[in-house]
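User: For a reading group we're discussing how well predicted structures match intuition. Take Glycoside hydrolase family 95 protein. Before you show the prediction, I'll give you the sequence so everyone sees exactly what went in.
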Amino acid sequence: MRNKNMLKTILLMATVLFAPWTLLHAQQELKLIYDKPAADWNEALPIGNSRLGAMVFGNPAKEQIQLNEETIWAGEPGNNVPKNTYDKIVAIRKLLAEGKAKEAQDLSNATFPRQAPDGLDYGMPYQTFGSLWLNFPGHDTFRDFYRELDIQDAVARTSYKVDGVQYNREVFASFTDDVIIVRLTSSKKNALSFSIGLSTPHKVHALTATEKQLNLSGTSGSVDSKTGKVNFEGMVRPVLKGGQLIVNGNSFDVKDADEVILYISIGTNFNRYNDLSGDPSKRAQTILDKALRVKYDKALANHSKKYQSFFNRVHLDLGTSAQANKTTDVRVQEFATAHDPALVSLYFQFGRYLLISSSQPGGQPANLQGIWNEKLSPPWDSKYTVNINTEMNYWPAEVTNLSEMHEPLFSMLEDLSLTGQESAREMYHARGWNMHHNTDLWRITGVVDGGYYGMWPMGGAWLSQHLWQHYLYNGQTSFLQKHYAILKGKALFYLDILHEDRSGKWLVVSPSMSPENSYLPGSVGVSAGTTMDNQLIFDVFHNFIDAAKILAVDTPLADSVKAALDRLPPMQIGQHTQLQEWLEDLDKTTDQHRHISHLYGLYPAGQISPFRNPDLTEAAVNSLIYRGDKSTGWSMGWKVNWWARLLDGNQTYKLIQEQLSPPVGDKGQSGGTYPNLLDAHPPFQIDGNFGCTSGIAEMLVQSYDGNIFILPALPDALPHGSVSGLKVRGGFEIDMTWADSKLKTLTIKSTLGGNCRLRLAQETNLKGNRMMDIAEGENQNPFYRVHPIKDPMISAKANLKGFKLPETKLVEFGTKAGETYTFVNQQ
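Assistant: Thanks. Here is the predicted 3D structure of Glycoside hydrolase family 95 protein, as structure tokens, for the group to look at:
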């Protein structure tokens, strides 16, 4: 028996040692594949390097490569903060205190109309550059068609045959040369004959062709009261091997070439949200000329190496099945009823691919569509909606080991903390900074979309959480010091605007709302002391207090903030055993609204824990059950994370199945996933991709609760697998394998040192490193403090049955920075 155990240990250790090879092999299959060209934009394949984006259709006869540049937005610099609204906000607050909700909503709508006469109710749309067109006469009768997006090297490829000749296309948005490169080849010499053209829907534009280059210049659109002032210029330079390049008006004809490489460069005049003094032509030409000096093979290798320096940090293998041999569109069609664990892995990594491709340091944050948009007036303007969507874009950043991708969001926060001082001062007579539920390239901070949707002064509260979470994952005091003023500014704002509620007991934000939902007929949503507001301020205040303590500054202010923190309303359990959405018990069991904002405290915050707050946990479960599973794409993505936090792996997987199914209708009846794996609200929003990616990570590891919970919500459908490179709070990286739904091996890399506390299934018996059992209920953790919350106020009508916890245990061991610790489960 002893020899058998020793052999078992050796085999498990071998699994740890050789897992990287196995996982690398699995990574080779990370491709979206299709056997027909894209019929529309939702079947085209996205490539991007954060600044430049493209959708590749793969049509043999008429290829379209739709192009974006991250700073082509309508409008011009300027904020949308209205004058003389403070008294009206005070009046709305007074009406709410008097119980006159309908009158308060009417005044909110009148004060902030959906179409304001002064034009200040704007948010500018993100706009397309246009499209590159490649027309191949005679190629409409093709065979052996194949196209793919290889997210292992960030390259889109198309191949097909016409009259026995093999044609290949390779497209990528270079991370190193900052251009989009298209390479066209054929199996026969002199077989490439086609035309090259550019088009744009922008009204103000000019298209010219020189001997070597196509140039398309233009100006972004004018919307509402804002004049379009983003000037842009795009350039296409063909480089031929053999054949001829012929100017044909404002396009090119290629005749009898062996190979053609197209270099696409785009520049704008945008420097900063308040500076449009750049030279778009000079910028684009400088980038293009530099890129042309790099040979194609070297350019491709450099691009893939840079991309893989991020992408290859995390590997995920959930097993495979016969479904993996089918095209991606078919796999999405069949996922709800067919066993396809490899599609979950692909979708997870596709989310990481999209984040790397749309949010690089030094650029703009990923907007509502990342960087991919074909319209001048896209849905919801494709701007930054910060009552959920922008935040969801960045949920995978830390846990999936892409911390650098977070930086554009932090840069935007720096801007907003400046422009937001105007809205704090003018609208609320408050210190600090503030924004509402939308912003754009110009960093607007006023109300957008009128007094029903827009009267929500909490956008900055939610965005600022990303700064604190980044610190918890990476532990850099210098980062905290750099962004401390942003955290302080948020605390000052809420310290100034909190008012006593009608009872005189609690401090609340009024007026506000629970995003986009209502509690009375006639679209009455404006309210005081909503649960989400209280949860957000709870985090804002704790983050500031902790940051001030770490940096040893602002002790008197921290004391004032602590006094206000103690008067925030607790979360409450209502008459339907639900977590209340509002301060009063107004929830309806028939409400299936897509926003379930009061569960922010469950995820992404860590205020509700099954182990610390079983009553609140059960109330959150009930709220989710009442709301239902089917919803918009991003909402189902959020639900994946919630059910993972609720430790229900099978329900988590059910939501992944809902998410990874085709959408129903185009009016938002039910979200899902398009054939190109992009999220459907519908229509396309990228947030659902990112939300589901983070939810898959939450199934495998959680670290919000003062410990690292290993395999907290593993579904029955994924009993075998391995993952490496996931990050958790406290600066640890996690590799693990599991089989028969049980942990087999665990490797932990410590980047900061300190104690490592693990939560494990009760039967787990890890061998190594003198682990010490510790008691449940410890509130202080060496790497992440869990803040206590007030006990919930439970309604007398509530009938809680008690949330059933899984049997787990806590173990702890010391680590040193830079060291790696490997364990084998002896069970």
